[in-house]
Amino acid sequence: MKSFIIRLISFVLGLSLISLGVSLTIKAELGTGAWDALNVGLSKTIGLTVGSWVFIVGVVLIILNAILLRTRPDVLAVITIFLAGVFIDSWLLVVFDQFTTSGLVQQIIIFAVGMLIIAFGISVYLQAKFPLIPIDKLMLAIQERLGVSMGVAKTIGELSALVVAFLFSGPIGLGTLIVTFTIGPLVQLFAPPVQKFQQRLQS
Description:
Shape: globular
Structural class: mainly alpha
Number of helices: 8
Largest sheet: none
Distance between the termini: 12 Å
Helix content: over 70%
Radius of gyration: 17 Å
Order of helices and strands: HHHHHHHH
């Protein structure tokens, strides 16, 4: 029971941190990750909140992943994307609603802090071993269907999101490239100490 509670806390805390980091990169206005750019672009072009599009796109990906993997849809992942959407809307529409940047230096600082928080949040959320965000499972689905490496599969997924984000005028910029190529190494940096800390709590 203790282990489950710690995992549940890690899951919710991790998603909250990821959403905080994503919100900060959006507010920095230097470009966001490809999937975040897609959600922001859809929000600006069609309407609804960014968090709503996190949920809608997530549901589409759950179905797509099931088709690619030839398995039943990961229904429990709906909880994951619902929480992620709620958290992002809470940060963007409540906490940071009136927040604007006042110069390039502040933009860079906010973006960098957002990046670090996203990576740390991913490390925390992965330790929970709960249903994955559909974006993460898409990488595994592409890898299995195309027989490519995980890195290539991740790149295919990111580029696909980037193309659609571009069509919907998402916030693509230098920050998009930075997110794409640095999130992985940052997660690897944070993961070992986070794992050790959680193991210590469970012992």
